Amino acid sequence: MKNTRRIIAYVMAIIVALTCSGLASVVSASAAAKITAVKIVSYPTKTVFVQGTDWDYGYYDMPEGYGLGKFVKQDGMISFHHNGGYYSHYSDRGMIDMTGLVVKVTYSDGTSENIAYKETKSGISVSQNILASPKGDYKLGENIIEVYFKSNTKVYDSYKITLVTASTKGDVNDDGKINSYDALMVLQHVVGLKTLTSVQFNAGDMNSDGTLNSFDALLILRKSVGA
Fold this sequence. Notes:
Layout: H1 2-30, E1 35-42, E2 47-50, E3 57-60, E4 73-74, E5 77-78, E6 88-91, E7 102-107, E8 112-116, E9 125-126, E10 130-134, E11 141-149, E12 152-165, H2 180-190, H3 198-204, H4 214-224
Parallel strand pairs: 2-12, 8-9
Antiparallel strand pairs: 1-7, 3-6, 4-5, 7-8, 10-11, 11-12
Helix pairs in contact: 2-4
């Protein structure tokens, strides 16, 4: 009987010791609420302008707020970017920049919260466990980006980005020449007689301010005569 009591006492002592050393927190963690749903609240809906065909591995980089700027080809890489001050490096089936991405996460206990990848809005917690990757290989045109968490990759939401080629500034019709017809296309767009594609718009936006007007047409004419 005494031996039984001693064994029970030893077991109780071990349980108390393990509890004090953190076992309880481990048990608690294992029983913690799990992610059951992910819903995108906001995301960077951007059109990405790329130059060249070697876009399986590259990067784009642009100072915040300066609009679409100069494209620079580097050794074995293509530098590309879009309006919005968006910084990123990515490779084929790689990760992309998620600045501005906010998701609503719902847990198994019924609670939910908004979580941002980076602190973009006051009062929203930040998590580095949010992942985003393309559904399939990156390609020119529309790409679906799936967003999920490391703890449960089977629950996700998605948004879309577009990769388009960038024309030479001033060459609105992409015929390899810059002339008065390119300026005319800009003016036709300005007065509503023609609607330019996103690539044509980018080529005609000479001062990269995100708008097309007669000043852009004038800059095209100046460039056509070498001024």
